[in-house]
Amino acid sequence: xxxxxxxxxxxxxxxxxxxxxxxxxxxxxxxxxxxxxxxxxxxxxxxxxxxxxxxxxxxxxxxxxxxxxxxxxxxxxxxxxxx
Length: 83
Description:
By secondary structure, this protein is of the alpha+beta class. It has helices spanning 2-17, 53-66; strands at 19-23, 26-31, 36-40, 47-51. Helix content is 36%, strand content 25%. The chain is elongated and about 40 Å long.
Protein backbone atom coordinates (compact mmCIF):
# COMPACT_ATOMS: atom_id res chain seq x y z
CA UNK A 1 0.00 0.00 0.00
CA UNK A 2 2.81 2.41 0.88
CA UNK A 3 4.53 1.75 -2.46
CA UNK A 4 1.30 2.46 -4.34
CA UNK A 5 0.85 5.77 -2.53
CA UNK A 6 4.46 6.73 -3.22
CA UNK A 7 4.07 5.97 -6.94
CA UNK A 8 0.88 8.04 -7.11
CA UNK A 9 2.57 10.96 -5.34
CA UNK A 10 5.53 10.85 -7.73
CA UNK A 11 3.20 10.83 -10.74
CA UNK A 12 1.14 13.72 -9.40
CA UNK A 13 4.28 15.71 -8.68
CA UNK A 14 5.54 15.29 -12.22
CA UNK A 15 2.18 16.40 -13.62
CA UNK A 16 2.08 19.49 -11.42
CA UNK A 17 5.62 20.51 -12.29
CA UNK A 18 4.98 20.16 -16.01
CA UNK A 19 7.47 19.30 -18.65
CA UNK A 20 10.14 21.52 -20.13
CA UNK A 21 10.09 22.00 -23.87
CA UNK A 22 12.54 23.89 -26.05
CA UNK A 23 10.77 26.41 -28.26
CA UNK A 24 12.26 28.36 -31.14
CA UNK A 25 10.17 31.39 -32.06
CA UNK A 26 9.07 31.62 -35.69
CA UNK A 27 8.42 34.80 -37.64
CA UNK A 28 4.71 35.48 -37.22
CA UNK A 29 4.23 39.05 -38.48
CA UNK A 30 6.30 41.45 -40.55
CA UNK A 31 6.24 45.11 -41.50
CA UNK A 32 9.01 45.63 -44.05
CA UNK A 33 8.39 49.37 -44.39
CA UNK A 34 9.08 49.93 -40.69
CA UNK A 35 11.65 47.15 -40.48
CA UNK A 36 9.69 45.30 -37.79
CA UNK A 37 9.03 41.63 -37.34
CA UNK A 38 7.43 39.58 -34.60
CA UNK A 39 8.52 36.16 -33.53
CA UNK A 40 6.21 33.88 -31.59
CA UNK A 41 5.85 30.38 -30.22
CA UNK A 42 3.06 28.34 -28.65
CA UNK A 43 3.05 26.00 -25.72
CA UNK A 44 0.48 24.18 -23.64
CA UNK A 45 -0.41 25.28 -20.12
CA UNK A 46 1.36 22.31 -18.53
CA UNK A 47 4.58 22.95 -20.44
CA UNK A 48 7.46 25.11 -19.28
CA UNK A 49 8.99 26.72 -22.38
CA UNK A 50 12.72 27.26 -22.69
CA UNK A 51 13.16 29.72 -25.53
CA UNK A 52 16.04 29.25 -27.96
CA UNK A 53 16.91 32.95 -28.15
CA UNK A 54 20.06 32.53 -30.24
CA UNK A 55 18.28 30.70 -33.04
CA UNK A 56 15.43 33.22 -32.96
CA UNK A 57 17.91 36.08 -33.24
CA UNK A 58 19.51 34.31 -36.18
CA UNK A 59 16.17 34.01 -37.99
CA UNK A 60 15.46 37.69 -37.37
CA UNK A 61 18.91 38.71 -38.62
CA UNK A 62 18.47 36.73 -41.83
CA UNK A 63 15.12 38.41 -42.50
CA UNK A 64 16.56 41.86 -41.75
CA UNK A 65 19.44 41.29 -44.16
CA UNK A 66 16.96 40.19 -46.86
CA UNK A 67 15.32 43.59 -46.44
CA UNK A 68 18.66 45.36 -46.78
CA UNK A 69 19.26 46.19 -43.11
CA UNK A 70 22.71 45.67 -41.64
CA UNK A 71 21.54 44.48 -38.24
CA UNK A 72 18.54 44.14 -36.00
CA UNK A 73 17.89 44.84 -32.35
CA UNK A 74 15.46 43.20 -29.98
CA UNK A 75 12.81 45.39 -28.41
CA UNK A 76 12.56 45.40 -24.66
CA UNK A 77 10.05 43.02 -23.15
CA UNK A 78 7.78 40.44 -24.57
CA UNK A 79 4.06 39.88 -24.65
CA UNK A 80 1.93 36.86 -23.94
CA UNK A 81 -1.39 36.00 -25.52
CA UNK A 82 -3.52 33.19 -24.18
CA UNK A 83 -5.45 31.27 -26.82
